[in-house]
Amino acid sequence: MTGHVDGNAIAGPLADFFSFDITTATGRCRACGTVAELARAMVYVSGAGTVVRCATCDNVLAVLVDTGERAWIDFGGVTAIEVRR
Amino acid sequence: MSFITRGFSGRSRERDDRLPPGQTLVGDFPVLSAGPTPEVDTAEWEFTIRTESGAQHSWNWDQLMALPIEDVTTDIHCVTHWSKLGTGWRGVALDTLFEDVDTDYAFTMAHSYGGYTTNVPLEDLLDGKAWIAFEFDGEPLDPEHGGPARLLVPHLYFWKSAKWVRGLEMMEDDEPGFWEQNGYHLRGDPWKEERYW
Which first-to-last residue range defines the signal peptide (chain B) (predicted)? Predict the structure, then answer.
């Protein structure tokens, strides 16, 4: 797949890791400092995994790998996540 | 007249012995991308091998084309369970590119335009096992398949065959690349089903 969908596509997979809808949270990009809702990120979905990129600078914010039995999540491209209650 | 058949499933379901475990044959060529497709002009393309001494061995597109070019017919195996048999490529062997490279390090990190990385042991790149490939099926390699040039390491899962490759960095230790940091196996031998950590 060469195109991308918006950040809402990761709401389901991330429900396994977080008890709230993380796409409504804001995160700060480690590369460019942009603070934006995760739903605004660019998401690349492939059979190998899902890559979430900053809509401003293309930096990889997060990587999700899910084999069915095992799953990994890497939020290394986000310095902080803000959740409002 | 009776025949002895292999197993219970009959001839039509016999497994092709060129297929590693857990793989299924495909006719098309699926595309896996972790980001936007970089548009790299051959006029600006460069491939560099960087060693521990800081030495850099670089080739531009014309210099690459002037090297011995090999025709390669090989099976490829993606970790997402598809395999393609007898694919045709043209490229320059890594043996050729490493001829004048002096290094004591045993590992490499492949770097791509667009930022992708993948780690490959040096011994998996030499002895006729890997190429910088720029043609697929008699045509210049499409950008979506890694053109103008990609690494081709067909005896490992295909995520190791880095698309849009721009260089190799020699490493003392086997450090994980992009997918290897996120669950995928450090080496990725399809015959051993080395898919994940």
Answer: none
